[in-house]
Amino acid sequence: MVYLDKVQKKTYKGGINLKGYFSTVENFLETDTKEVVYQLKNLYPDAMSGQVRSWYNFVNDLKNTESFRNLTNDSVVAIEYDLPTEGMGIDCILAGYDVNHQKVAVLIEAKQWGDDYIEEHKFDTYRAENALLHPQVQISKHQLCFNDYLDIGKDYKTTPCVFVKNATENGLCSLIKKNPSGSTKQIPLYNSLDKLIREKASNIVSGSSDIIMDFITAEHCPVIGIDDAMRDLTKKNAVFVLPENQEPVYDEIMDSISKGKRVIRINGDAGAGKTAVLLNLYAELRNREDEKVFPIFVPGAQNTAYYRNKYPEMAFCFTYSYSVSKMIAQNKGKKIIVLMDEAQHNEPGVITEIINMGAILVICYDAKQTLSTENSISELRALENKNFFKALEIKGSVRFNGSLVAEGNIRKFLCGRTDFKHDDKFEFMTFRKIDDFQNKMYRIIQENPNDRVAILGLMCQDAQDYTYPKHPKSKLITKWDKDGDKRAETCYIEYVDRKTYLNENKGLLRVGTWWAPGLDFDYVGIIIGRDGKITTNGFEGVPEQSKHYKMIIDIAKYMNFPKELFDGRNYIVVRKVMEYVKKQENETIRTEFQNLFTAYLRHMYYITMTRGKKGCYVLFSDK
């Protein structure tokens, strides 16, 4: 048997502690119950007396269950197996191999509840002051975490189930009826441990020490990105397993809605998990069996178009902000909950209209990620003094492979600083020469064939100087959509998803001329052309070299430049605006224009640089 005092805690990548009791069935049966509980108490010294009694009772129940005793001697049992999300652990796992030598695991959530306890309590899909987390929802989250957030998860076929020891069949039926999550009601509930094991673990025909070593050496390895989560919206109750920095915010949102708050703001730096919280909330509201509640998800204009194109069968899940008022009007009498990501990008007036129509608004926004003077930040800030407003903040970041300094290092770069903090979890590198940058990106692709790698940037007038064929040594290209009237954002993400970079375009790497807001990749390369430069004051924008036409035009309108400048196509308007700025004798006008452009361009590159989960590589100057 593998004793806990020999295993103890092990610190894994990302600073996650995984722990638990592991044994073969044979050794478990030979070990005295008091010894097992003693080992559990050593591992969890803060366990309350009620928890200790539950361990004692459950261990005895297992030992006295005939179907458990009939499992093969080398089958594996794990108790109180910690998962890589704070406060989340599986009460019991029975694991081994089936007849096809497929690794299988039965995940058991164990409760001591009786019928009276079930009738007296309210259950929900989250923990609240007046509600318990429903065990079917709980074990579904455990299954999601095990399969998607452990590096061993993809190797196992898992079966979730719930054991409610003291409930009758009527009690189990009542518990199912009290589950507000329709998508988890199919998870079986048992009041007989013997029946549970006979029906769910009988396919275990053998075990091995390899199974135990899997559990001991498992590492936190999230494989679900935002894009994958969008795909899973209609398939799972929870698309993400929320870590400790997000779970309390999620619970507070649900609690605030129940208490009558109408505007709930979620703030946080890039990678904090704002979108993940919104997605989980949207998935839960959609899966609740409540026809009176109508959730609307607004991922942001460009992302809405992207997701609708990529997942046409789910287009109804992704709504443009300008369509929200129409949807509210069509669903009068229902409780409308609008979940809006990237809310800072809305035109003024959109937010106010939604609120005036009586909807509840849950919004994510970051003033540091605005890209234009035409934004809703002032409108959003005006709401903060209202009594129906609730502000919540997600601390820290979960995007950067467990790094606590990656986001700060990126900010330093944009401020012109080079005193980056050492980071062994997230690689951040800058390059001056295109050859060095290209070689690095090729190595990343070759060494990580299963990872999504994006190269973004070249939103500048000199973009061709970086790409083939104008630059004869370049291994980079850009492409346009087939219809030729827009940049290929959607097609570019499809290119990234295929992960066949070296087999396409004669091995040349394609650059996405986009800042990819709200998306993430495993690795991201950024190319900054002559639209930016490093000075003693840090990163500064060079508007005359930029192709951010809307950004420049919005700044000019914000500064009340003459109306005649704005006639014509965007590139013509920008040319006239830049000529007007150069002719200004008033230094204040030129300085304000330059400062505004620099601020928004910094925001844009901040967004782009923070899209990577494992690494960011920046090419700056020296073509």
How would you characterize the overall build of this protein?
The protein is an alpha/beta fold and 623 residues long. Helices cover 37% and strands 19% of the residues. The chain contains 23 helices and 23 strands. The strands form seven sheets. A six-stranded mixed β-sheet has the order 3-4-5-6-9-10, sandwiched between helices. A five-stranded parallel β-sheet has the order 12-13-14-11-15, sandwiched between helices. A four-stranded parallel β-sheet has the order 16-23-20-17, with helices on both faces. A hairpin with a 2-residue loop joins strand 21 (532-535) and strand 22. The longest helix has 23 residues, at 587-609. The chain is globular, with a radius of gyration of 27 Å. The protein starts with a helix and ends with a strand. The model is unreliable at 1-17 and 481-487 (pLDDT under 50).
The number of helical runs is 23
The value of Rg in angstroms is 27 Å
Structural class: alpha/beta
Low-confidence spans: pLDDT under 50, at least 5 residues?
Answer: 1-17, 481-487
What's the main sheet like? 6 strands, mixed
Overall mean confidence score, pLDDT: 85
Helix percentage: 25-40%
Percent of residues in beta strands?
15-25%
Shape: globular
Terminal CA distance reads 61 Å
Q: How many DSSP E strands?
A: 23
Q: Widest sheet: strand order?
A: 3-4-5-6-9-10
